[in-house]
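Cross-check.
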Amino acid sequence: EILAQAQQQPEKPSEVKSAAVEVLRSISKKVEGFTSGVMEFAGGINQLPQVLSWGADQFRSPEARAIWVEILVKISMVLALGYVAFFVGRWLLRRPRRAIAEQPPANYLIRVLRLLAMALLDLLPVGVFALTTYLTLGLVEPREKTRLVALAWMNAFIIVQILGTLFNFFFAPAAPVLRLLPNTDETSHYFQIWSVRLSRTAVYGYFALQAALLLGLPKAPYEILLRILGLVVAVLCIVLVRQNRTTVSDFLAGREVEKGKRMVPQGLVHRFASIWHLVAIPYVLVFYGVWALQVEGGFLFMLRGTALSLLAVLLGVAALHLINAYLSRGFKVKEDLRGRFPGLEDRANRYLSTLGCWFMGWCPWPSSRPGGLTAWPGSPASRGGC
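Predicted model, tokenized:
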């Protein structure tokens, strides 16, 4: 920012100096806000014993005990009827759902439409659950706090089911013939297991803390418990990254993966394959830190920086493709000369592989294709030359 403003107005050094001062002040404010967030977070940990004190007070107070008894009785009644309605609705819809899942689609559009139909059938029991619980909640007429706690649990269940429906639409673990992505049954069920773990941990944990706050949990312990919940979710995401480190690395590196699928990566992607997890894990930690410390504009800064970085990489890869295409044609020796002098092209392009392989992501050695050059140094056609 300082250099940009200096280039716009080089004749006014005083304004350039003031711009530099403003940027430094902005950085100082962000550092100060970050430091205060860290101190507030650390200071709040000392208030965690208030949670135990609050729990003990709930059992000592007759009014609090009455509220908890009402919560256990009335919420159990509401949720029991809702779950019965949900599972009965799912049982009644199991046959039409199975018929949609097992019939092979004629084309891609039919596949998407059938997945949408399955999603609708999955959401119908959720709607029945919501209708039943809301009607039952109106009939039992609980006090305000009990009603809010019941709504928190009901909303958590509905959100988890909707997230599960979205996952089933994209991965279809129980409908292989309709699956949009070329995953095996094991991988689809693996991601289903992890989607359930993450969604239930995050959603139920968040609404449980909201319910505790409604019941009188002090604000400071609530904030600390909320950040601990976020840390648990971040750790689960890191575990997920570590578990899939080799699989993703093999896919990016172009090795054989599920169903014998292979991809042909460029040099940048091929190099990124071995270190992608070293980028993903810090990203998870940074995003958690931005959220936990409530850094002002932190998410916008991270998303903007990520988008611009990806754009720069894509533009760079496109430029390398253009350079590769130009050099593939410009450095190619004519057919008649190759026929008359078999070693001429090898001699004329000697040592260019070093420049291409390490700096440009291409290899100027003859490939197995007639008159073609390899696209990246690790491809099967170039392993002999580079």
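The longest strand covers residues 363-366. The chain is about 75% helix and 0% strand. Passed to J.P. for a second look.
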